[in-house]
Design a protein that fits this description.
This protein is of the alpha+beta class and 293 residues long. The protein has helices at residues 10-14, 101-106, 111-121, 131-134, 138-150, 153-174, 186-203, 210-216, 221-232, 236-254, 259-265, 271-282, 286-292; strands spanning 6-8, 21-24, 28-31, 44-46, 48-63, 66-71, 74-78, 83-100, 127-128.
Length: 293
């Protein structure tokens, strides 16, 4: 029987009767009981970045259609729009932290760092971390809970940044290097991706054409597109659009620039063209996004 794909956002999560749930401004949710896993019994698209720490038991799950087993001392990171399904659980204990995509952007982590973490984690499932290391994450949970209940946004932001960097360090230290498929092509693909991201950082305010970036690398757009898709799982145009939209969101939220000024700053021919582009990517007009700020 066909199972409908369900979107789970933080707003949707807050509608559920989940024990031991703490939330802050619909931007961060923490769950100290993994009983909420029942929400994922069908294929579910997560609309937030999620960090899951398993302290005991076992979870049999699929992530982006790949089957994984999560066990004690496993760390799992899922990005927005990843698809997860829980097939079964056995005597599980642990906790989860979910951060909305808007809040992740407010943290203003270096975009290339976020891109590399996406590549490092994508498709590799849970990471086994030594017990003495994974228990060091628990104080973050306690500090988050205390400051979320007290309503301390600046402290919460600092904790979110510290947790993000701690997890990235754990990923770097403990992630298995099992790249059996395409092993010979990986160094070349990584070099190309790094060059592409460097160019994107330099020119994204003026250039959104794949042809431009391919010309800068003296390669064909088809070759660049294929290599980046193969290496990162995202098409080159997706990375370009994500970078441009991130810049636009920052301008809308943190500057007094008019929508027209932002359109011209990002090299759109008209305010209308920028508005159409932004709405295609975000499902909100620039003004709607700013008003929701």
């Amino acid at each position: 029987m066909y199972k409908t794909l369900t979107d789970i956002s933080i707003e949707r999560l807050l509608e559920q009767d989940i024990p031991e749930l703490v939330e802050f401004h619909k931007d961060i949710v923490m769950i100290n009981s993994l009983d909420g896993m029942r929400l994922f019994s069908h294929p579910t698209r997560l609309k937030a970045t999620t960090v899951l720490v398993c302290l005991q038991g076992e979870i049999d799950c699929s992530i982006n259609l790949r089957r994984f087993k999560i066990e004690a001392n496993h760390l799992l990171v899922n990005f927005a729009n990843d698809i997860i399904q829980i097939h079964s659980t056995d005597n599980i204990a642990g906790y989860a932290v979910m951060l909305s995509e808007d809040y992740m952007q407010q943290l203003q982590l270096d975009f290339r760092l976020r891109a590399q973490s996406y590549i490092g984690l994508r498709g590799n499932g849970p990471i086994s971390v030594p017990h003495e290391e994974i228990v060091n994450l628990k104080p973050y949970y306690d500090l988050f809970k205390r400051n979320m209940e007290a309503g301390n946004p600046e402290v919460i932001k600092g904790l979110a940044l510290a947790l993000s960097h701690t997890i990235l360090l754990m990923v770097k230290c403990y992630q298995g290097q099992n790249h059996a498929d395409g092993e010979e092509d990986a160094p070349r693909a990584q070099q190309l991706f790094d060059k592409f991201m460097t160019l994107l950082q330099a020119y994204h305010e003026k250039e959104r054409s794949l042809q431009f970036y391919a010309d800068k690398m003296y390669l064909t757009p088809k070759y660049v597109s294929g290599m980046i898709k193969s290496y990162s799982g995202k098409a080159a145009l997706e990375w370009i659009n994500e970078y441009v939209v991130l810049e636009a969101k920052m301008m809308l939220r943190y500057t007094q620039m008019s929508v027209q000024e932002i359109a011209y700053a990002l090299n759109f021919p008209t305010q209308s063209a920028f508005g159409k582009y932004f709405k295609q990517q975000v499902n909100l007009s620039p003004r709607q996004y700013r008003e929701r700020g």
